[in-house]
Amino acid sequence: xxxxxxxxxxxxxxxxxxxxxxxxxxxxxxxxxxxxxxxxxxxxxxxxxxxxxxxxxxxxxxxxxxxxxxxxxxxxxxxxxxxxxxxxxxxxxxxxxxxxxxxxxxxxxxxxxxxxxxxxxxxxxxxxxxxxxxxxxxxxxxxxxxxxxxxxxxxxxxxxxxxxxxxxxxxxxxxxxxxxxxxxxxxxxxxxxxxxxxxxxxxxxxxxxxxxxxxxxxxxxxxxxxxxxxxxxxxxxxxxxxxxxxxx
Length: 248
Description:
The structure is a single chain. The protein folds into two domains: 23-86, no CATH class; 109-232, Alpha-Beta Plaits, CATH 3.30.70. It contains five helices and 13 strands. The chain has helices spanning 88-95, 101-104, 134-146, 171-176, 208-219, and strands at 23-36, 45-51, 57-70, 73-84, 109-110, 114-115, 121-126, 151-153, 159-163, 181-182, 184-186, 193-194, 231-232. Strands 6, 7, 8, 9 and 10 form a five-stranded antiparallel sheet that branches. Strands 1-4-3-2 form a four-stranded antiparallel sheet, with helices on one face. The longest helix has 13 residues, at 134-146. The termini are far apart.
């Protein structure tokens, strides 16, 4: 088998592993290639766990397409049928080999499609300095109304969208259509916070809004070993808590 192995040392089981209470069928079945100590027969239905960049394990249900022995291991091609409902997006990325060696070691992990206890799928919107245009607000409202009907503003000047499962695959495109992007959750540069800067009566001359946008443009999406928080405050009143973050 000449296809590249996507995931190594996978344990394939006939029965559910027990990591999730619910599976969600994939919209369009796709294939992945794994190495395993377990020999499988073509058309066998199998379950297995996958390590995710966020530090947890997601469960997968698949069908065996082919299985060949090579150097005392079995190279198995699988058709992915169902995914752990908690981690549909990160599982899809890992199974398709879309996480690079750099990011698979820790980041960034995008805040996209995170399963909540109420059944909604949370997505964080990256908003340097918390700025939004009228057009962007309208898009946020449109996406929100199609989802849970409510969104949350965080202390880090981001917005959490609570989505229905079918929105997860399209929300990135929806946001990009108005110049917005999905935010980082872990192992990367978090949302750049900024005060109103030179617009404030206490300003010391720093255009914090512009500075936050410049930093975001330079660092957005850069993988890091840890979560990195950056904030820009224009004066000693420290409205953005710049003394409490990693870089301020």
